[in-house]
Design brief:
Mean pLDDT: 83
Strand content: 5-15%
Radius of gyration: 31 Å
Number of helices: 22
Low-confidence stretches: 211-216, 442-447
Shape: globular
């Protein structure tokens, strides 16, 4: 039995080995091999230059868990730039602790302060949080920071970029000087070194895990497509259709780009969601959690909005917009090729951006080759291959035997069994496997079904209610059998959602959801009809008689008489 001898050699105690085995740990990563012995020995503080996905949490989490003992006062403080990363770190530490009864909790803005105060009152051993909320809790006199054994800054450069420098300095000034301190940062700006000089012990060590090798580059295939700006969406659709198992983050430069790409993908019936700074925290969490559960395959995001999102099984990172510099490029592509899985990093490069690409190649010390986009024939072949593999799996497992009699009946309908199979394929794929159904450039068949005859449905819920287009399509498909490709344009607003559907499909949706209190659909009447009803409802009003106050009238005539 593998009892993880390499982790034991780093000093990890027996009581933590079962938790590592349960999480399928095999061998320490580079940053774990460097950080764990230093933190366990307590001899030196450490700056670790390592990227997301290199096992950083276990690198500092295992020594913290092994060293501290349960109590009422926090013994470890971990600062992170975002609420999502705080939650992820806390969850990871809880799982790494195994049976050791340590209390770990995340603290961040957006959650009720009363809930967090109650958690602190009951006692917390490991505090994980964003700098702003940590300062707030301390100023309220509810968070004690003078008995720490560990103070850790995760993604320190991102916290500096987000303007947390003053909070970080104030928080560290409140901690006790004999603590062990660790900072993780993908880059080493001067501010990081200044914090180290001010708050770390003088003989602190800087450990670098090999620059870009930390992104698991051996497992990440990098290439670019030269694409004109106006053809980027078509190029993205080609990639989606050619990679049937695609699960990707797509990076855009601006919020407007994110919204535009997401809306156009929805119009072509692709399942995707947007993530940028103007999205509410509640909606942000819903989108991230749904993405992690694979409820939709494409997350369209800006770099800032994607901070702190940790997903280990991405198949692709797609640079829809080429990043401004190599540091951002490395951050992005470091999100794929993790946990021993093969990953792909694709960049769309316009003819005018080739010089910028050369600078990125020079900085990372790696040539990024150009590839041709998949052709419609490639896409059709990929779909055929996936379908054939699924059929072979059903045959191998015998899962389809209950349909054997029905299949035999169907085979008698044509002059040859192949005709019946062809009819089944036509019902399943419609025109998806026909070259004539593809445009000259782009992977999509017609952008969406002809909507001239369609009915528009109104759903009394929108983004503010947690509705996402992928979730809506999934619910409709599960309960009605209507596929996303059968529906027309979908517009999801804050408080309502509009869906175009074939009249028969629209009636089916209304019937199925008729008694559902959460999903309330109705026909959305054309504006002219609503105006007509409104006009009909306006009845001519009778003229009101002007009533004259009697005493005033008598006084008026009396005054006239006197004047005469």
């Amino acid at each position: 039995m593998n009892d993880l001898p390499e982790f034991r050699a780093l000093g990890i105690a027996d009581e933590l080995i079962p938790a590592l085995l349960a999480k399928n740990f095999q061998t320490p990563s580079a940053i774990q091999s460097l950080a764990i012995p230093l933190l366990l020995s307590g001899e030196k503080d450490l700056i670790g230059q390592a990227l997301t996905g290199t096992g950083k949490t276990a690198a500092f989490g295992l020594p913290v868990i092994q060293t501290i003992e349960p109590g009422k006062v926090p013994k470890a403080l971990i600062l992170a730039p975002t609420r999502e990363l705080s939650i992820q770190i806390a969850d990871e530490l809880i799982s790494l602790a195994g049976s050791k009864p340590l209390k770990t909790a995340p603290f961040f803005g957006g959650q009720l302060i009363t809930v967090q105060l109650d958690i602190l009152k009951k006692g917390v051993d490991i505090v994980v949080g964003t700098p702003g909320r940590i300062m707030d809790l301390h100023r309220r006199g509810k968070l004690q920071l003078d008995q720490l054994q560990f103070a850790i800054l995760d993604e320190a450069d991102e916290m500096l970029d987000m303007g947390f420098i003053d909070d970080i300095r104030e928080i560290l000034s409140l901690t006790n000087p004999d603590k062990r301190m660790l900072m993780f940062s993908a880059t080493m700006p001067q501010e990081i070194m200044d914090i180290a000089a001010e708050f770390m012990r003088p003989d602190y060590e800087v450990a670098r895990t090999g620059g870009q090798s930390a992104t698991n580059v051996a497992l990440t295939e990098q290439y670019f497509h030269e694409v004109k700006r106006e053809h980027k969406l078509d190029a993205l659709c080609r990639l989606i259709d050619a990679n049937t198992d695609l699960y990707a983050m797509v990076f855009c430069r601006t919020r407007a780009d994110v919204d535009e790409v997401t809306e156009k993908l929805h119009a072509r019936n692709y399942r995707a969601e947007a993530l940028h700074g103007e999205i509410s925290q509640t909606q942000r969490l819903r989108v991230i959690n749904a993405f992690k559960k694979h409820k939709f395959p494409l997350l369209i995001a800006t770099d800032v909005a994607a901070r702190g999102i940790d997903v280990n099984d991405l198949t692709h990172v797609i640079n829809y917009s080429l990043p401004q510099n190599s540091e951002i490029y490395i951050h992005r592509i470091g999100r794929t090729g993790r946990a021993g899985r093969h990953g792909v990093a694709v960049s769309f490069v316009t003819p005018g951006e080739k010089r910028k690409l050369k600078f990125i190649e020079k900085d990372i010390g790696n040539e990024i080759p150009m590839k041709k986009l998949p052709t419609p024939a490639d896409i059709i072949e990929a779909k055929k291959q996936l379908f054939a593999e699924n059929i072979a799996l059903l045959l191998e497992t015998g899962a389809a035997k209950d349909y054997l009699n029905f299949a035999e009946e169907l085979c008698t309908l044509g002059s040859h069994p192949a005709e019946a199979v062809a009819a089944v394929l036509k019902l399943h794929f419609n025109n998806e496997l026909l070259l004539d159904n593809y445009r000259d450039f782009g992977s999509t068949p017609k952008e969406r079904p002809d909507e001239s005859h369609m009915k528009k449905l109104l759903l009394f819920a929108g983004r503010a209610d947690g509705i996402t287009v992928p979730e809506l399509l999934r619910v409709i498909a599960e309960r009605t059998g209507i596929k996303s490709t059968q529906l027309g344009k979908i517009i999801c607003r804050a408080d309502k959602t509009f869906i175009n559907a074939d009249p028969i499909d629209a009636e089916k949706i209304l019937t199925v959801f008729k008694k559902d209190k959460e999903w309330r659909f109705k026909y959305d009447e054309p504006r002219e009809n609503r105006q007509k009803k409104s006009d009909q409802s306006e009845r001519p009003q009778k003229k009101k008689k002007i009533k004259t106050h009697k005493p005033l009238r008598e006084e008026f005539f009396k005054w006239i008489a006197e004047e005469e």
